[in-house]
Amino acid sequence: MVFRFLAFLAAIGMISAAHAAPQEYRFCPDLGVYIFVGGTGGFNALRNGDLIKALLKSGHVGLYQHANAINAAEQTPGLIQSIEEVFSGTGPGEAELGQVGWNYFTLPPSYDYYQEQYIQNGLRPSEANVNTPSDAVAPGQLEEDIEQWKEYVDAARTVGINSVAPVVAPNAADEPKLGENVFATNPYYALERAEALYGKAIAFDVPPHFFLTGGSGPGYQKFIMQAIQWGNANGLRTTMLLSPYPWPVNSAGQLETFSQFTGNTFSRDTQEFVSRLAKEHTVPSEWAVDNYEDTYPDDGPAMVPETVRNTTTEVGLWLTRNAPVYVHSGDSEGVICFPPP
């Protein structure tokens, strides 16, 4: 969560993992939309549907509506509507927001909050991933912080957001990771567990390269996999957020553009990461691809076309053809589904 929360600011039930792993893989023909692509880097380029034809044709992809990207796109009249037209028929999409007061969703458009940025622009996402202020709470604050989260989620539901996920991951070196089922049992994560259960969702900020190189230290990889299992076992939407990380800066301290980033390995890292999770029978119910490290909304080459390696949409297209997904099966254990060959 640390990475995404800092980036966001800069731009504006315990169940054993052993019982969470599904027992089989299947090829599932009717998966619907379970992959999302979008902002921030190059978000404005999504107006050109001709560059993502295969992605749209897959029937598995919706629009990822990061609040920073939406705010930037608003500066160009008609741009958001053009992007909506490209993604018409792909469902309501998924938003990424920051946790502020509950009235963020309800204040009138004149306040330039959710009603203006999303509703007035025709955006009505049914899912949201939220960058919370902290992974843990100060002593004595747990009940108050849970109540604030509940008010936020209840307000989100009034505008059609059915599931609201805290964005989690122990991406800071000093956060607890070592042990069995740390997310499910450690008091440090009591707030995030309560948030996920009430919001009916949990999202994971896990850049593939970061995960593959050990994350924030010993125990990180196991923590992530067992936290996914915890979410699946509790019947939650589990969304894995995929981003290229780290993103380089030039000698002047400015972020490089996609074309300047010659060492980009986003595609390869994603494929290896997905393979690793699949081998461990530990996959989420959704995948979302968004480049939040590249904060240039006009850096189109970072987003499209879907035929160029390491673009957001190329990674998204690979996921539609290869990535497994956890599918809940009512009261019984879920199954891991692959898209049909």
N-C termini distance: 34 Å
| Biggest sheet strand line-up | 2-3-4-5-6-7-8-9
CA-based gyration radius: 19 Å
**Category from helices, strands and their pairing:** alpha/beta
Element-level helix/strand string: HEEHEHHEHEHEHHEHHEHEHEE
Content of β-strand: 15-25%
How many alpha or pi helices?
12
Tally the beta strands: 11
Portion of residues in helices? 25-40%
Shape: globular
Mean pLDDT: 92
Low-confidence sequence ranges: 5-23
Largest sheet: 8 strands, parallel, barrel
Topology:
Layout: H1 2-10, E1 25-27, E2 35-38, H2 53-57, E3 61-66, H3 67-73, H4 79-86, E4 94-98, H5 114-119, E5 127-131, H6 142-157, E6 163-168, H7 182-185, H8 190-199, E7 201-205, H9 208-212, H10 220-233, E8 237-242, H11 266-279, E9 286-290, H12 312-322, E10 325-329, E11 332-338
Parallel strand pairs: 1-11, 2-3, 2-9, 3-4, 4-5, 5-6, 6-7, 7-8, 8-9
Antiparallel strand pairs: 10-11
Task: List key phrases describing it.
alpha/beta; single chain; 341 residues; 8-stranded parallel barrel; 11 strands; 3-stranded mixed sheet; 17% strand; 12 helices
Describe what this molecule looks like in 3D:
The chain is an alpha/beta fold. Helices cover 32% and strands 17% of the residues. The chain has twelve helices and eleven strands. Helix 5 (114-119) links the parallel strand 4 and strand 5 (127-131). The chain is globular. The relative contact order is 0.19. The model is unreliable at 5-23 (pLDDT under 50).
Provide a quick synopsis of the model.
The chain is of the alpha/beta class and 341 residues long.
